[in-house]
Amino acid sequence: MVRLTSLFYNFVWIFGADLRRRSRFVDWASYDFTVSPAALKAFEAEYGYALSAEDFINGGRLQATHRPPTAHKRDYMDFIQRFVAEKAKVLVDIIHRHGKQAYVFYDDSWVGMEPYGKYFSSIGFDGLIKCVFSGFECRLCAGADVPVHELRFHPYLFPVGLGGLPTFSEGGHPERDAMAYWLHVRRALARQPVQRIGLGGYLHLTKGFPEFVEAIGLMARQFRRLKALHEQGAPAVLPVRVAVLHTWGHLRAWTLSGHFHETDANPLIHINEALSGLPVDVRFIDFEQARSGGLDGVDVVINAGFAGDAWSGGDAWRDPVLVAELTRFVHEGGAFIGVGEPSACPGGDTCLKLAHVLGVDVDDGSYACHAPWAFEVEKAPPFEVCPQALGRLKHARLIAPDAKVLAEADGTPQMTLRRFGRGWAAWLSGFAYSPASARMLLELLLFMTGTQAGAAGICIHPLVETAWFPASGTLVLMNNGDKAVQVEALWPEGRIAVSLEAWEMKFITV
Q: Measured at the alpha carbon of residue 479, what is the angle toward residues 473 and 480, in degrees to the nearest 5?
């Protein structure tokens, strides 16, 4: 097997000498630095127009993946993606002619290499390798159109970690790091399988860390059990179809622009992380799909981000057809979850273009002298709310008296729920991933769709997740808490009492 690490373009890290601002710019999916005179000339010859500097600049700043692209930028991205796919196929064909398999390590070559892009499958890779800290990264790898999917676990076998702290050196505890990441990874692997796992770095560094070796042994055994279960049959999935709606849609399925710790200021990465381990169907759609039939076969739409960013959508919400289609979708029985500043766009009579659906808006100053609706927090919400996951959006306000407030902070709504026609709309001021907030999201999805969770297996305890594998009659339980618990688990054929140690993963044949 031949592993290709970086193809033709790398992700962008710009560093400065002053430690007060050491990291200046990081974008793992930036196309700005693919620009060359040859590329610009070839683009102009094919498309019939020339690009300008402003196609790569956003008001004096680099046009990061977090910002909605211009139409010209989209053309250029498609141009580069085809270029990368065509040239990469040449390399893969050479490898195949020599009787070898071609794998690609995704994390050093994002640009033009998006596994969910239009041209990726044409390259002919035999395997995709993805380094992972989190569950959403596992789902990104597992769903790619390649025969073999491989995860590279952290921490790397280096003396220090990516953040500069000791790992395999004095003061390091790599076994703690490995298990902390595994708690995120295993819940995603219970939902969708990969074929291989591994580590990277210098193997001899593990000699003085027997606890790390033991931890990796445990992870490997649990991985093999999960892999064997998937080979016998898929886990049960609830009849809840979730569409995450943003500018990039399927191209950026499961990810934003980097690892979790590089994008954790955005609520969507936390939503993705929570969804990665839930027993629901998840897809990613863009605004053009949403306005032209892409909501067919969808039960819940999630839009999460800040005003003007690619995840909320920015100017896409100027389109009245898009707004009308989402309005129709909810009114006819669908559900919409907005997080942060969903559908935010300047102009019109509201900041959030779906404020009339949510019953909530964000005051950008235009509500001066206008009082919001007063409210009381619901004393008996339909599910357990995790207020510490919600944060606070200072200028949020109720604009509809029938919007129910499930949580508040300092007199400002944090979470609301509203009946709209035959459907439901929920608004969250923010979302931070934790096992408890993931459970809250699941309960919200179940409530909004009227779905019973037992069909896919569920545990009464909020920090214990389950996966039900009907083909093998196996129930998998994962304790995401730091305390031993006695719990009751439900699955379609009954219920069972189970004891779990802190962080334990247990496989039960019922």
A: 135
The correct CATH number of 457-509 out of 3.40.50.300, 3.40.50.720, 2.60.40.1180, 3.30.1360.120 is: 2.60.40.1180
Closest-CA residue to 253 (of 73, 115, 130, 153): 115
Q: Is omega for the bond preceding 155 within 30 degrees of 0, making it cis?
A: yes
Q: Does domain 2-232 have CATH number 3.20.20.80?
A: yes
State the average pLDDT for the chain. Answer: 94
Six token digits for residue 209: 């860390």
Q: What is the pLDDT of residues 303-333, one digit of tens each?
A: 999 999 999 999 999 999 999 999 999 999 9
DSSP state of 510: -
pTM exceeds cut of 0.90:
yes
Torsion, Cα of 150, 153, 157, 162 (10° steps): 120
| CA-CA-CA-CA dihedral for 234, 236, 238, 243, to nearest 10 | -20
Catalytic positions, please? 108
* 3-class DSSP assignment, residue 494: strand
Using left for φ > 0, alpha for ψ between -120 and 50, and beta otherwise, residue 302 falls in beta
Angle (nearest 5°) at CA 259 between 435 and 252 = 95
Per-residue H/E/C for 322-362:
HHHHHHHHHHCCCEEEEEECCCECCCCCCCECCHHHHCEEE
